[in-house]
């Protein structure tokens, strides 16, 4: 019971952060929604089904759960936001070695993220959720 409650709480916090990320430019949306979906899968299949059926977030989640892929538009937006947020961080930190570490992390993140397969969302699949 405690584990289920913690999973549900974590899932709702991630949904809230994902929704904030849809509005705020430097906060990512997709990773929080993926984490929320993972928590809901284990804590409440009904809430996971609701999240998977969401008209905006469902297709992205379905694409990841089914194909371990992201759409080209999600990749493009994420690349822009990653570069902008790291650029701001590099600009703001005063020490040169912090800047170097941030640039190294930026490089690793971009290489990893851009190696993920790209697959366009299929709209009709978004409402049904992944077959498990």
Write up what this structure looks like.
- The protein is mainly alpha-helical and 132 residues long.
- The protein has one domain.
- Helix 5 packs antiparallel against helix 6.
- It is globular and about 50 Å long.
- It starts with a helix and ends in a 6-residue tail after the last helix.
Number of strands: 0
Give the SSE order as H and E letters.
Answer: HHHHHHH
Largest sheet: none
Report the end-to-end length measured between terminal Cα atoms: 24 Å
Helical content (DSSP H or I, runs of 4+): over 70%
Number of helices: 7
Uncertain segments of ≥5 residues (pLDDT<50)? 124-132
How large a portion of the residues is in β-strands, by DSSP E?
under 5%
Rg is 17 Å
Mean pLDDT: 86
- Total separate domains: 1
Query: What class, by secondary structure content?
Result: mainly alpha
Q: How would the global form be characterised?
A: globular
Give the gist of this structure.
The protein has 132 residues and is mainly alpha-helical. Helix content is 75%, strand content 0%. Keywords: Cell inner membrane, Cell membrane, Membrane, Transmembrane, Transmembrane helix.
Q: What labels would you give this structure?
A:
7 helices; Inner membrane protein; disordered C terminus; cell membrane; 0% strand; mainly alpha; membrane; cell inner membrane; 132 residues; transmembrane
Chain-wise SSE layout:
Blueprint: H1 2-23, H2 30-43, H3 45-52, H4 58-67, H5 72-92, H6 96-115, H7 123-126
Helix pairs in contact: 1-2, 2-3, 5-6
């Amino acid at each position: 019971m405690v584990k289920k409650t913690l999973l549900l709480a974590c899932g709702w916090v991630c949904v809230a952060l994902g929704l904030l990320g849809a509005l705020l430019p430097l906060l990512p949306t997709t990773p929080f929604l993926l984490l929320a979906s993972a928590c809901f899968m284990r804590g409440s299949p009904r809430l996971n089904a609701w999240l998977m059926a969401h008209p905006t977030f469902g297709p992205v989640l379905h694409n990841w759960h089914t194909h371990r892929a992201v759409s080209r538009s999600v990749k493009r937006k994420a690349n822009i936001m990653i570069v902008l947020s790291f650029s701001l961080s590099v600009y703001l930190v005063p020490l040169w070695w912090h800047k170097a570490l941030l640039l190294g992390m930026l490089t690793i993140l971009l290489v990893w993220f851009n190696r993920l397969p790209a697959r366009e969302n299929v709209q009709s699949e978004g409402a049904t959720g992944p077959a498990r």
